[in-house]
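Model the whole thing, not chain by chain.
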Amino acid sequence: METSIELSPAEGLAPSAAGWHDYSKLKVVSSRHPWRLVGSIFALLGLALVIQSLVTNPRWEWNVVAEYLTVDSVLRGLWTTIYLTAASAALGFILGALVALARLSKSPVLSSAAWFYTWFFRSVPILVLLVVLYNWGYLYEYVGLGIPFTDISFVKVKTVTLLGPITTAIIGLTLNEAAYSAETIRGGILSVDQGQLEAAASLGISRGRRFLRIVLPQAMRAILPNAFNSLTGLVKGTSIVYVLAVYDIFHTIQVIYNRTQRVLPMLLVAVLWYVILTTILSVSQYYIERIFAKGAARAAPKTPFQSLRSLVGSIAVEIKERATAKSAALGVKGGNDACDD
Amino acid sequence: MLATIDEKRAEIEFAEIETRGRAVSGSWSAAAAVPASARPETGRGRIEIRGVHKHYGAFHVLRDVNLDIEAGKVTSIIGPSGSGKTTLLRSINHLEKVDSGYIAIDNELIGYRRKGERLYELKEKEILERRTSVAMVFQGFYLFPHMTALENVIEAPVSVKRISKAEAIAEARALLSRVGLADKEDSYPNQLSGGQQQRVAIARALAMKPKVILFDEPTSALDPELVGEVLQVIGDLSRSGTTLVIVTHELGFAREVSDKVVFFDEGRALEFGTPSQIFSSPRCARTVEFISKLL
């Protein structure tokens, strides 16, 4: 292909006496990205195919999906899933925060204990953990409160009466979640500049307030993406509780399709609910991150709604500008007179 | 004995600063500094440093440092990088613990409480209480990035001194206008230039009404163009009766504004004297060499 560039002095572009060109009247053509267009077409094509097959293939049995989506037992299972997720995420993060603080403590005993905790619960498969906890009553028939290493005991309860399936599930998920969130939180705390602590200390701000007011809000920026990552993982991870015969949404769905043999549409029901839960989490993540982005960016990032509005606005402005540019040739001011004031 | 610190301390009134000459010129106007003789004699914040040693592992950072920093005066610490200037400053604020020797501000030992012939190590709470009388301005500013300029200034008065928020805000606004940033109270640190951030940091330090303000290379992280505005503010403070200790590489500024200058080298306070002594007729060859390189 011929690539020579010809510099012909176009109309009004003849070099001035001093040899300077005036480029200000030339039209700017933005660069084209043909492969982007090809990629986008393929992506849209793929999406269309997926939608078409989902809609037209009768074996997805959308009528069954619709029938079971809001059936009582499914909603009860959904509630159990939400309840398990919320409880073990909340408790897990509280415990995780304590473990993280212990890990960062100057006391070698606390910090090794915290390290050991994380090491242990990240090593044990959650399935094994749940089964062991469920059999705690077999391992230790009674749990009680007393003075260690003596026979004195204040309360003594049969273990099986304390650890029902739901309680066991929450404890197991919490212990597991805490091990991971401890590391997430520790990472966030470490990401805050040491100078922040010194500045706060030099002002006489107390240790607790230094952590809550100065470090934590800054650490949250690093903690949140990972925390929501493990939270969305937990939403689906709760399905492991089928081993305890807890009827979360997934276990409920399994029971239904074992009876009705409508496997795929029932799985679609589960997927739809998981998608809805994840969507809620993702949207709230976006807004929560915005809160903690305060001061991090020069200008607060726009919400999707705001950016849509400004996009529409800028298109309108461009259309207007093009119209005026056509009707009136722009006068160009020459010279470098910005300093004359 | 601790409770009396606050009661004893005179409220330090700062002279109002005109916003003269706070232009973007890099130069610092010497007119802002008050001649040493015109400064109040009875300011609080006398710092005694006796036989201080400090090691970082095998590295001997401070070697037998002895200094008397007079109350209400401006003392600059100059010297090559790594000579221990910053470490000494941090020790005065108990951000570092010295290995031996002691530092006292107005006869109160840093880090210890004296009872008869014994010294008891202070608890965290007592350390914090004493720190409120010593403020520090850092090379890296360390403003709290998630708070506006105003929130940065009121944070410590509200949480440590427990003064009402309205009162703290009124004082903070006065301080921000004193450093020439009255219009920036709602800006986040990220939206301010380095010089503006450092001026907010100075306002934040002043908000605690300290006896002593320690400046740790306050202009070293700034563009040459912005150095002047920060030095201007510090120069204005020099007449306030607060004890200022300034670690700096701005020798011209140190000469103009200081009552005393300390030359530090290899962990020792090699020379201590008036600016004219240190800059015009230094005794040590090391001082001559250092000053001739920088001036």
